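Translate sequence into structure tokens.
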Amino acid sequence: MIRIVLCAVVVFVLQASAFAAGGGRPELRAMLGQMLLVGFRGAELSDDASILRDIRQHDLGGVILFDRDVQLRTAGRNIQSPAQVRALTAALQAAARTPLFIAVDQEGGRVRRLREGAGFPFIPSARAMGQGSPDATRQEGERTGRLLAGLGINLDFAPVADVDVNPASPAIGALERSFSADPETVAAHAGAFSRGLLSQGVLPCLKHFPGHGSAMADSHLGLTDISRTWSPAELIPYERLIPLGASPLIMCGHLYLERFDADHPATLSPAVLTGLLRERLGFTGVIVSDDMQMRAITAHYGLEEAVLRAVEAGVDILVFGNNLDYDPDIVPKAVDILVRGVDSGRLSRQRIEASFDRIRKAKALLAAPSGAVRETAGDRS
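Result follows.
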């Protein structure tokens, strides 16, 4: 098993180096495949698995692992034991021409896909970490990063940068996912956890921009309007961490905020993602959507309109968890939608190339020595 894992690491580094170097003008469909990150069913993969088809035929950019299948209400969807996860991630990477993002939500506390019952160590919640020192939080980030890297997981959808404005918020406060009600404390601990992950070669992803902590509703279940509860203080963690290059990825939330966009949630809003996050706050990294199958999106938009609006708004990677709903053909469907968007002139090729370039740069960090990853990503003590 050790020999297999080491071989997979060598192949990954070689692939990532080639990806970073370029090697000709990439085809449109290959670039579009890199803009998708999806969930799938199976703790082991047969050769005819749809996810392997998506990786081989559609140049899929990434996958996300879950411990439970929400739709089937069963355990062990992708995660059953450390040895099983290592074998699964190695098989996924071996099928890819371009290195995959292999992602997981491993925040700690209630939101962790790698649990003790399957043989993984406990990780405390963000709220618990926030009551200690940033240095202790950095050490938790290091432990988490070491765990993930050893499993072949290279992207953690953590830490949460939401401010605990409403401790009863069903998706954040009630689950102890925020470090603190003080935005400066959130910034300090989110930055520390990110540094810990990066020190182990695992990329962090701050979430959920522009701030989910005041929400009275859960965007998994429907539209989340934060117009009356949100305040600019919820941007402070991003204002502090973006100039430091603390995270190469930021996830936007399906959050409706009327002061910025009276018509669309943040994921579909050029005013929020391009105007606020890119132009005002200066973020140059990868913008990741929250799960596009959440009811906040699917209850109000069809698949085609949601996909096109998200990319128009500034999303670089579209996430389809394939867990709230399951569609084994979501990748070819989404690629076809984006191709039609380019062919019709609604999306320019330059817009696609910009996302592809940001994704390429983020993936190149995975092939760099750990010190180079920390320096490039803005490790600051």
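Note: The first strand starts at residue 36 and ends at 39.
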